[in-house]
Write a structure and sequence with these properties.
The chain has helices spanning 27-57, 62-91, 95-114, 118-140, 142-146, 152-176, 181-202, 216-227, 230-250, 253-259, 269-298, 301-321, 325-352, 360-389, 393-408. By secondary structure, it is mostly helical. The chain has 2 domains: 25-213, Up-down Bundle (Growth Hormone, Chain: A); 221-417, Growth Hormone, Chain: A (Up-down Bundle), CATH 1.20.1250.20. Helix 1 (27-57) packs antiparallel against helix 2 (62-91), helix 1 runs parallel beside helix 6 (152-176) and helix 10 packs across helix 11.
Length: 417
């Protein structure tokens, strides 16, 4: 999984501009359903079932093994997403790729539930990332393909709501089937497959002109060109630092609850995830809406971005200084408030510091490297810190430091208040 913005693939800027799309009736609810299913699988599988399965294979080396599986599969996902997107660009169709990716999730999830070695788990989850990123890349492209410019705010909201809703569903289903990996994986596969069938059956698609993908050399040149701009470079750095800090902790949440947190008697770690995730999701929705509105009203983007990154650092210090369940509850709420506000306002800030208006989509695609890259690095960094530091307190402190640096990174930006 990679955090991304709809319609920001640089490949889609090549060639002539497409005609203004005509919206399909009921498209926004379908986008919400499709993204909800996707995030439910990502959270329920990677955040709960996969961690439990890896622990069952080798409890003593679970942190290192989970870091390996999560890190390698993140590399696989980051590479495969633009490849799948380019393939759908070349055909001028999205629905067949959404359907194929969604349906192929079923056999891959069955495979993942049947393997019992770290190597086979790694291979199976990489296959899972391949089919899920085929689904994700095509689904993400629907907004710029089929939604008129004046309606893209609502479409982005529908896409964005899929994260908190899907995360909550994923955590609840993952916790419910924590003792039955095979059935849990199958249920997530069914959820995504059903969403793919529903979307492709109900969302009208008109074949678009096939578009050649942007050559690798041109992509690299675009990346370097955007980062030479002073304000955009600092926005990129700030986003990368904050996302790295967030995912170094988020990926290991289940193990943190098992090995660091003093849970109340009778509360299993996987059930604790099912409590924390909805709390964080609700906080994220509230802060996303409120933070965006307040930053618009006061026209102070840097203030809200910096403050929310600093608030994330404060949230990370709570479980660092206390291993209590109360501290984890407070962390989940405060961190959700911080991350939701940050992502909403920072995205608005970035759109205001893009180097050239005519290259906006390309440069937003460059920004997605700051989302995807840290997610690759985070599992390796986290497992190393936990192994060397002897626990999770150093991990929280390191993540807090990254968030502080992310807050400071917005200060040099000159073109936005």
């Amino acid at each position: 999984m990679a955090l991304s913005s709809p319609g920001t693939d640089p490949a889609r800027t090549a060639g002539s501009a497409p005609q203004q799309p005509r919206p399909s009736r009921g498209l926004l609810p379908l986008l919400l359903a499709g993204n909800t299913a996707m995030y439910a699988l990502y959270v329920g599988v990677a955040g709960v079932l996969l961690a439990l399965q890896i622990e069952a294979v080798d409890p003593a080396a679970k942190v290192a093994n989970f870091g390996l599986v999560a890190g390698v599969s993140a590399i696989f996902a980051t590479v495969f997403n633009p490849v799948a997107g380019a393939l759908s660009d070349r055909t001028g169709r999205r629905n067949p790729w959404i359907l194929a990716g969604g349906l192929l999730v079923l056999p891959v999830m069955l495979l993942l539930g049947s393997v019992d070695t770290i190597l086979l788990i790694l291979i199976a989850w990489c296959l899972g990332q391949a089919v899920m990123n085929t689904y994700q890349a095509a689904l993400t492209s629907v907004v710029p393909d089929r939604v008129p410019t004046e309606a893209r705010g609502r479409a982005s909201a529908a896409v964005g709501l899929g994260l908190p809703v899907g995360s909550t569903i994923g955590a609840l289903v993952g916790a419910a089937y924590s003792d039955d990996f095979r059935t849990g994986y199958l249920i997530f596969g069914v959820i995504v497959a059903a969403a793919a069938v529903l979307f492709t059956a109900c969302a009208r698609e008109e074949r678009m002109p096939a578009r050649a993908p942007l050559p690798v050399k041109a992509r690299l040149a675009a990346f370097g060109s955007a980062l030479r701009d002073h304000d955009f470079r600092w926005a990129f750095i700030g986003r990368a630092l904050l996302v790295l800090g967030y995912f170094t902790v988020a990926g290991f949440q289940l193990y943190i609850l098992k090995d660091h947190t003093d849970l109340p008697a009778g509360l299993a770690p996987e059930d604790a995830v099912a409590i924390l995730m909805p709390l964080s999701s609700v906080a994220m929705v509230v802060s996303t809406v409120l933070g965006g509105w307040l930053s618009d009203r006061y026209e102070r983007r840097k203030l809200f971005v910096g403050a929310s990154a600093a608030l994330a650092a404060v949230a990370l210090l709570l479980p660092a200084v206390s291993s209590s369940w109360t501290a984890m509850l407070a962390f989940s709420v405060v961190n959700g408030l911080a991350f939701g506000c940050y992502m909403a306002v920072d995205t608005a800030l970035v759109t205001m510091v893009l180097p050239k208006a005519e290259d906006a989509a390309r440069d937003m695609g460059v920004l997605n490297v700051a989302n995807a890259g840290p997610q690759i690095v985070a599992p390796f960094v986290a497992s190393a810190i936990v192994s060397v530091g002897g626990g999770y307190t150093p991990l929280f402190l390191a993540a807090a430091l990254l968030s502080v640096l992310g807050a400071l990174a917005v200060r040099p930006i000159r073109g936005v208040r």
